[in-house]
Specification:
It comes from Enterocloster hominis (ex Hitch et al. 2024). The protein has helices at about 10-20, 55-65, 70-80, 85-100, 110-135, 155-165, 205-210, 215-230, 240-245, 250, and strands at about 1-5, 30-35, 45-50, 140, 145-150, 170-175, 180-185, 190-195. The protein has three domains: about 1-125, no CATH class; about 135-215, no CATH class; about 215-260, no CATH class. Helices cover about 45% and strands about 15% of the residues. The protein has a five-stranded mixed β-sheet. A three-stranded parallel β-sheet has the order 2-1-3.
């Protein structure tokens, strides 16, 4: 067995798929794993680290789009954003089946490899949908809108376009605290993705400085708490139902729950 240790991003996974496919060792004799995740080492297995290059990733993308469909390409991209540590191998197995069956594979959920991709995408889309509702902006100095999120899946590239469309004339930042990256939207311009912390010459983290600036959160905390107490019916309080509609993990980043936390 040859195990390819991929960089855990979309391009890295595509490069792992390219090397595994072009090795001609047989699909049953190769497996993809994500570099940096815990896996027990297997005896008599060869571990290979594919080199990540734009050329290899582009060849995979071109083959998927021309021989399958744009929808299949979209599916594997969204699946690559999942938190699942086995997503690289699941995408590889799916493509093996897809190139044999054709683009119609997306309609055949009885195929296990397609079902796996469907589950990955559904999990990503569900979290993105919830964040569209639960994300909160606070206004910092200079009128910049700042928000923190801590998603399990890497949904930033799905989430940012929504707010770029809804808030085109605002300066805003959405910061993913788990991955230390941010979507930055200058007023009237396209948003950009910053994949690493930006540091000032003295070593201070510019995101941390921005996120620690005084905001209008306290004012909105008071408004939300007053709203909850006004509409709440004590006899009908149902914490379990509340948690089903608003999981606890989202509350740490929501303005109205800051004081409670």
């Amino acid at each position: 067995m040859t195990i390819y240790l991929c960089v855990p991003d979309f391009e890295g996974i595509l490069c792992g798929i390219y090397d595994a496919w072009m090795s001609r060792k047989g699909h049953d004799n190769v497996r993809l794993e994500l570099k940096g995740t815990y896996h027990e080492l297997e005896l008599f297995s060869e571990y290979v680290e594919p080199e990540s290059t734009h050329e290899k990733a582009h060849k995979v993308i071109k083959s998927v789009c021309s021989k399958l469909s744009q929808e299949v390409y979209k599916k594997i991209y969204v699946a690559s954003l999942s938190q699942d540590t086995e997503r690289a191998d699941k995408i590889y197995r799916f493509l093996v089946q897809a190139f044999g069956i054709g683009p119609g594979i997306l309609d055949q959920l009885q195929i296990p490899e397609n079902c796996d991709i469907f589950e990955l995408c559904r999990n990503v889309y569900n979290e993105n949908h919830l964040l569209v509702e639960f994300l909160r902006f606070s206004q910092a100095a200079g009128g910049v809108l700042v928000s923190r999120i801590g998603p399990k899946n890497d949904v930033m590239t799905l989430l940012a376009p929504h707010f770029a469309d809804r808030l085109p004339e605002e300066n805003w930042i959405i910061y993913d605290v788990n991955r230390e990256k941010a979507a930055v939207h200058p007023k009237g311009k396209p948003w950009i993705l910053v994949n690493h912390p930006l540091e000032q010459p003295d070593g201070d983290n510019i995101w941390q400085l921005c996120l620690e600036q005084e905001t209008d959160e306290r004012e909105y905390e008071d408004l939300w708490i007053s709203f909850f107490h006004t509409i709440a019916i004590k006899e009908r309080t149902n914490p379990i139902c509340q948690r089903n509609h608003l999981p606890l993990r989202y509350r740490a980043y929501m303005t109205e729950f800051q004081r409670e936390r």
